[in-house]
Write a structure and sequence with these properties.
Layout: H1 31-43, H2 54-63, H3 70-77, H4 81-91, H5 105-112, H6 114-130, H7 137-160, H8 165-174, H9 177-189, H10 197-218, H11 223-230, H12 241-259, H13 276-286, H14 292-303
Helix pairs in contact: 1-10, 2-3, 2-6, 3-5, 4-5, 4-6, 5-6, 6-8, 7-8, 7-9, 7-12, 7-14, 9-10, 10-11, 11-12, 12-13
């Protein structure tokens, strides 16, 4: 009988096992290093922006079509009972003028209108489902609260300036989208090694407009809206044409949010705040001279119900 002398399982004593290599977290120590690392992340082919829920994406795509039967939107929305319940709760607020309780999705669509329903779906999705940044939850929540406030003021500005208020609300809601994406990227890069916030916030602000464009395009938001939210800190581009009017509205809305205690009070934010001259130009563009108290009153009325 021939014996087999091939490969055999070695004894434990014969094995030399290399210790696993554990990557030490890279601690970036300057604003420039943090900003550059974030730019590299966003430019990487492997970067995956935060993803909207499928239902939100489907609603947004369908709503941009010229004529959309309400039953198609209804069929999409009812697939998510939780979201449906929140929309019904929203449309029964006094601000929407419902004389009798709204109990069906069809009635909600008719009461709010398609653009407003889509805005509320986005708002609810952003607050509860889209953004996860372990260890940075407080910072993400602060940006979302600020974005909601700016959206509310932008909507109030638009109504007074005879603009499309739901569209202005959407611009306000999305205007700091890249700041949240940057926080998520920073959380992924620095798990267990949180950088100094005095350095991190200025770096986040430095890259957030480019990141906003990246995420907004990934979400297939309308191109003109992408341009507005990605350029809202570019005063040399402001106030020309329809896009300029929307940017002017965001300038005024951010100022009012700041004055009313809903600003983004973080290190470096003052570098991005609109100066007095720019705010004046924005008010002139929208014919809002002397009308800002009316904007504040209207915004508080809608935010407080």
């Amino acid at each position: 009988m021939s014996s087999y002398s091939g490969w055999r399982l070695p004894e434990a004593a014969e094995c030399e096992v290399d210790e696993p290599v554990v990557d030490e977290p890279v601690v970036l120590t300057t604003r420039e290093e943090i900003a550059e690392r974030l730019r590299q992340t966003f430019a990487s082919r492997g970067y995956e922006p935060p993803v909207l829920p499928r239902i939100a994406l489907e609603l947004m795509k369908l709503s941009r079509q010229p004529k959309v039967p309400l039953h198609q939107l209804e069929q999409i929305l009812v697939q998510d009972p939780t979201l449906t319940g929140q929309i019904l709760k929203c449309c029964n607020r006094p601000r929407f003028g419902a004389r009798a309780p709204i109990r069906s999705v069809r009635a909600a669509l008719m009461r709010l209108g398609i653009p407003e329903v889509c805005n509320q779906v986005l708002r609810i999705s952003m607050k509860s489902r889209v953004f996860r940044a372990p260890g940075w939850e407080g910072e993400v929540d602060a940006v979302i609260r600020h974005s909601e406030a700016v959206a509310t003021y932008a909507s109030a500005v638009a109504r007074l300036a005879d603009q499309d208020a739901p569209y202005a609300y959407l611009c306000g809601l999305m205007h700091d989208l890249g700041l949240i994406a940057a926080l998520i990227a920073l959380a992924d890069q620095h798990a267990g090694a949180r950088p100094d916030l005095e350095l991190a916030w200025p770096a986040l602000l430095e890259v957030h407009e480019g990141a906003t464009r990246l995420v907004a395009e990934a979400w297939e938001l309308p191109p003109e809206l992408v341009d507005v939210v990605a350029d809202h800190h570019q005063p040399d581009l402001a106030f020309v044409g329809e896009r300029g009017a929307l940017i002017a509205g965001l300038v005024v809305a951010e100022l009012l949010a700041q004055q009313e205690g809903a600003g983004l009070n973080v290190p470096g934010a003052s570098d991005f705040a609109a100066g007095e001259l720019l705010v004046r130009r924005a008010c002139l563009r929208l014919d809002l001279q002397g009308k800002l108290p009316q904007v504040v009153k209207a915004a508080k009325a809608t935010a407080g119900d």
